Structures are given as C-alpha cells and as structure tokens.
Amino acid sequence: DRNPDYEHTLDTLDVEIAMATLPMDFNIYELPGSVYRRAKEIVKKKESPFKEWSAALRATPGILDYSRAAIFALIRSAHPEFYHYPGRLQGYINANLTETDHENPTEEALTAARHTPEKDAVEEANRQLAAARGEYVEGISDPNDPKWVKTGTSQPTTEPELVKNVGNGIFDVSALMQNSSTHGTETNPETTSNVQVQKADSDEKQAGDAVQAGEDDLGTGKEAVTVENQNQAEAQQNVPESQQEEPEAAWPEYFEPGRYEGVPNEVYHAANGISSTQVKDARVSLMYFNARHVEKTIVKERSPVLDMGNLVHALALQPENLEAEFSVEPEIPEGAFTTTATLREFIDAHNASLPALLSADDIKALLEEYNATLPSQMPLGASVDETYASYEQLPEEFQRIENGTKHTATAMKACIKEYN
After folding, report:
1. Do the domain assignments include residue 345?
2. Where in the sequence does UniProt note compositional bias of the Polar residues kind (predicted)?
3. Can you give the pTM of this predicted structure?
4. Kind and range of the H or E element at 278?
5. Does residue 49 have a cis peptide bond before it, meaning omega lies within 30 degrees of 0?
C-alpha cells in the first residue's frame, strides 16, 4: 500500500513502528509532520515499546512485504504489556501477522490500525502550528484563557469605527463590541472596553513550517504542502451557555498515576502513562527508575511475593489472561493415587479382601491325601528273586526285557524305576 517509487527498508520500517506506538489516531498515509518528527525522535532514543517491537519485527521473515496498515493494526491491537515478554510478543506476531493482499489492506486492518482518512494531515498540521504561534484554534486553544480578548492581533487598525488606537498600546473596542452578535448579553468581568494588547506588525512574515515530502508521508507520493501564514481575525466572544454544545464524552489518552473509578481496564492500560510500579521506583531513586525501566540494565527478579501480586492483579483486573500467564494446577480427582503410600494402601486393602492362604501343614496334608490315591510303588528287592517278583507285577508296557533273554537284576530294576 506504499508508493511504488518508495524504497522501503528496515530503517523506514522502524519509523512506521514508532508511529504505530503513538496513542493518537491519524491518517497513516498522509502523516502529520508532528507525528513523523516524534517518531524519528523515538527511533533515535530507542524508547520502549518501540525498541522491543522493532527487534521482534526485524527478526520476522518477509516483514518488508507487509503493508503499512498491517504493521499498524498488529501493534495497535496488541496488549500494551506484551512487549515486556519477548517470547510472548513473538508468538503474538506469528499468530496475528497474516495478510494475503499486501497492496490492498482490508477494511478490518484499516480499522484496527485506527486509520482516519477524514483527518486531513496538512490541515491538522496547520492547526497545530497556528496554536503554537499563539493564535486561537478551535478545539486546541482554551477559550477561557484571559489572553483571548475580544479583538484579534491581525484586526485591521484602519477601521476607526470598530477599533480605535488611543496610544501606548491601548485600543478602544467598544464599537466592535456593539456590532457583535452577543451585544447586550451578560459577559464576564474581563470584557472591558479599554484593554491593552500586544501590537502586531501586519507586515511581519510568519515562518511556515514546511514539511518535506520524504519526511511527511513516507513515500505516499503526495507533496507536502507548506503551511501558509494564518493571520485570521479571532474575535472570541462570550457565548451564552444555552448556545454552547456539550462536548462528547471521550476517554483521555493520558492518565496521571492514581486510582480511577468507572474506567474500563482496557482503556486505562491502553492510555499513554506509567504504571504504579514505575511511580514507586521513581520515588525510590530516579537513577533506579532509569536503570530498570528505561535502560533495562536491572533485570526484574521473580519471587513468590511478585508472583502472588501478579496473580491477584490478573484475577481482579485481567481474568481473561489468567490461563495465558499462569500454569493452573489441575484438580486431582478424589481417590486418585498421588504417592507410593496411597498405592501401597490400596494394594494392602485388596490383598486383605482375598481368601486366606493355606499353611504349610494344610498343604502337606493335601499332598498326602492325594498321594494316598495313587498306586503304590514297586520295591526294588534285596535279591534277584525279590526283584524278579516285583518285575512280574509291572504292567506289560513297563516289562521292557524281551522273552528268551536273561533277566538281569540291573535290567529289571531299571524297568521298576521307570514305573515308579
């Protein structure tokens, strides 16, 4: 979505990252000069969270292919505390940096990037510069400031019927007051007819703040317009309260440290400010504050007290982030085995429910009872005749000696042993 003639590098990417970290909304394709200069200052000083975002995005493959809207949407949709955790920040980038058409960002991406094309960048820059020069600008200058008298610095002094110079820097504006639309209404005590204002040389040339094309819009191809001299008459009158419009309620972009009732958590954390921890560290020592929160040379040490504080903070203010930031121990079912003792207790209870084991005497009695039912063994005999008598009582399948051969005592005992 950038100009084809614009050379996009990692350095120009840093400028876009810095602008995306700013809290205000603006036209991301027609950048106000003040926004661009502030972004360059952030890059030069390596301020946080730009420094962390730059390191993470520079390490992302193909990052220069993504559109400016995708970069803005990614940074402005992230939780404001993500940059404190590099691992979580890189995971967020990998999960959310998705774009198919780099040249034509979607409406969702432009909305997330807070792109406001209705805010003309040059006109906004002109208004800011006019206010800086001391001119009254609606929506920027305070109408209740006593310095806004009922005549302007560029009011022509050639009209004696309206503004009369009485000398020594004193002007008579009674005629101008009578011709105003609020003549006759009750005004504040400060609306005097003879007031002393600073003379302005009508021929004085106001130095316009010209913003170069390469500095203004980062390659959108649109020439930056030099801010013209704005010497318009601002005759601020006291408007009756009945004619004043009530300003639309809006959350501030900056919160002073303190306790706020009725402010949504996402609004408070999205605002540009410092945390209560930073305030406490600053009260201890500004050098300590700089080393811990700016230079990052003091590493935050974890402790049970810090973990408990983070847990209470997440439970009270950010319960949706509880599972992402803490490992919640699962609930153990009732009756589950957790230690060796519980497992052994279960085994002992099971064994106790089994029938009792037989004693040695019971086993011996059963064996003797069983053996009594078996056939008795044949004696080997002390002589050849006794051995032959026992051999003749053997079943035929155990009489291995062939008929007609000599029946020796050894052969007959072998057959008897086989039978036994």
Report:
1. no
2. 180-199
3. 0.33
4. helix 276-284
5. yes
Q: Taking Cα atoms as reference points, which of 234, 118, 116 lies closest to residue 176?
A: 234
CA–CA gap between residue 278 and residue 276 (Å, rounded):
5
Quick check: 194 and 176 in contact, CB under 8 A?
A: no
Q: Pick from 32, 40, 38: which is nearest to 216 by CA?
A: 32
DSSP state of 26: B
Q: In terms of domains, do 234 and 158 share one?
A: yes
Amino acid type, 261? E
Whole-angstrom Cα distance, residue 101 to residue 103?
6
* CA atoms of 35 and 379, how far apart (whole Å): 120
What the block records as the tokens of 404 is 């007609």
Whole-number Å distance between alpha carbons of 323 and 343: 32
Q: At what angle do helices 10-20 and 68-76 cross, to 10 degrees?
A: 40
Q: Which of 187, 154, 155 is nearest to 173 (CA)?
A: 155
Residues 102 and 155 in one domain: no
Q: What is the DSSP code string of 105-174?
A: --HHHHHHTTB-TTS-HHHHHHHHHHHHTT---TTTS-TT-TT--SS-TT--TT-TTT-EEEETTEEE-H
Residue range of the domain that includes 52: 10-112
Written as tens digits, the pLDDT of the chain (420 aa) is 777 777 889 999 999 999 999 988 888 888 888 889 999 999 999 999 999 999 999 999 889 989 999 999 999 999 888 888 888 898 899 988 988 888 888 888 899 988 887 655 556 666 777 777 777 777 677 777 766 655 544 444 444 455 566 555 555 656 555 555 545 554 454 444 444 444 444 444 444 444 444 444 454 444 444 334 444 444 444 444 445 565 655 777 666 666 677 777 777 767 666 777 888 888 899 998 899 888 889 887 888 888 898 889 888 888 888 888 888 888 888 888 889 999 999 999 999 999 988 899 999 999 999 988 888 888 888 888 888 888 888 888 888 888 878 888 888 889 999 988
Using CB atoms within 10 Å of the CB of residue 159, give its burial: 0 to 12 exposed, 13 to 18 middle, 19+ buried: exposed
Domain count of the fold of the chain: 5
* In a domain? residue 306: yes
